[in-house]
Amino acid sequence: MTDNTTAPAGLAAGDRVAGRLYTDPEIFDQELTRIFERTWVWVAHESELPGPGTFKSTHVGKQPVIVTRDRKGELRTLLNRCRHRGASICEKPSGKANGFTCPYHAWSYGLNGQLRGIPYPDGYEGVIDKSELSLKKLRTESYGGLVFATFNEDAEPLEEFLGDARLWIDRFMKQGGGYPIKVLGKHQFKFRGNWKIQLENTTDGYHFPIVHRSWMASVDAETADMMSFMTDPAAITHDLGNGHSVMQMVPEHSDLDADDGTEPLQGRFDDLVAELSKTLDEAQVRKLVRAMHGTGFNLNLFPNVSMSSAFFRVLRPVAVDETWIEHVAIGPDGPPEVDAVNRERLRIHEHFQGPFGFGTPDDAEGWDRVQRGAQGAPEMPILVNRGIGRETRSAEGWPTAHVTDETGMRAAYGKWKEMMGDD
Ligand code: FES
Ligand SMILES: [Fe+2]
């Protein structure tokens, strides 16, 4: 392992990384350009952009962008930076508009980023060509309702980048119980730590019974039993390639269509079942209720989004020691009677992931402490070698080990090393 700051790739070595990866601002700056500005970054779920004129503002790495659906319904990602003197042209998190007008000198742009109007244009006669001053556009592609953008014109097509993770995205979307998935709501928080600490956490089954002891103690016995995967040999994690990984905590829910009908529905949902049964048939009710906790796996997509059981977790690197997280609750986009399902899903989400939840606040304490501890001995390794001696290959060829092993972290750092070392 080297301490040469010009070659950060040397700080990751398969089964370990230097603690300095969390604390060195130079490495952080290089990550923004070498990773976040070069690969596909998740920006939206299609349900957030339901029709022409809808938009949301977000970030790709540290750069502000607006995701829009233009008049023709096409998804666009535009840099949120006026071509005049650089002001942000939209500060609303989401909404509907015909276009965007910069608040500073009122240059106005269409939903596709084209510069449409300039006030008092006589000063620009013979000086500028409006057709050359569109908002900067990012490549935008979607898969399974997930919208990604990249600054890199040469990046591989999105589907290629997702590769084998596509199968797991398809499976994740089955939690709509036959209906499409929509965003129900979201909240944001920040923690005083490096973004990779969160990236590691999504497929870290090892911490679950330790950090989430209070959550386990706060739920009903059936839910606690469902999440007691520590000694279940069928609970495994796969390295899916390209930095992506999936951790199957409840393998019998990985493919919700594979239901032999023998698993009883949880007693906590008895009232919900009774309500849904007034209008929906038994098979439909079973599908919806069996998917209440999502798909039983966490899918981590390098570098900034995970599909975790029943929600999306989006990370945004802000500084070497500051990361913003967005938790996006999802549920079926169905007829009005499905509202009862979504109300209950939100309560489950709040109970673990909410600001006063029994899960995420405990995770965040762990992340903060990693950042604080990692100030010490920056070259001393962070170990990600758990289970390396029992890693095998699945039938699909994916490196695979137990759900408590650090296969997912090794997958992410393998991609990190490749991107950071590649000039
Ligand atoms: S900075 Fe946008 S119009 Fe001047
Ligand atoms: Fe956790």
From TrEMBL:
Domain Rieske: 40-149
Keyword Iron-sulfur in record: yes
CDD domains membership: RHO_alpha_C_AntDO-like (cd08879), Rieske_RO_Alpha_N (cd03469)
Molecular function (Gene Ontology), one example: monooxygenase activity
Required co-factors: Fe cation
Gene3D superfamilies per record: Naphthalene 1,2-dioxygenase Alpha Subunit, Chain A, domain 1, Rieske [2Fe-2S] iron-sulphur domain
One Pfam assignment: Ring_hydroxyl_A
InterPro entries attached to this UniProt entry: Rieske_2Fe-2S, Rieske_2Fe-2S_sf, Ring_hydroxy_dOase_asu_C_dom, Rng_hydr_dOase-A
Record's keyword terms, sorted: 2Fe-2S, Iron, Iron-sulfur, Metal-binding, Oxidoreductase
Record flagged with keyword Oxidoreductase: yes
Name by which UniProt lists this protein: Ring hydroxylating alpha subunit (Catalytic domain)
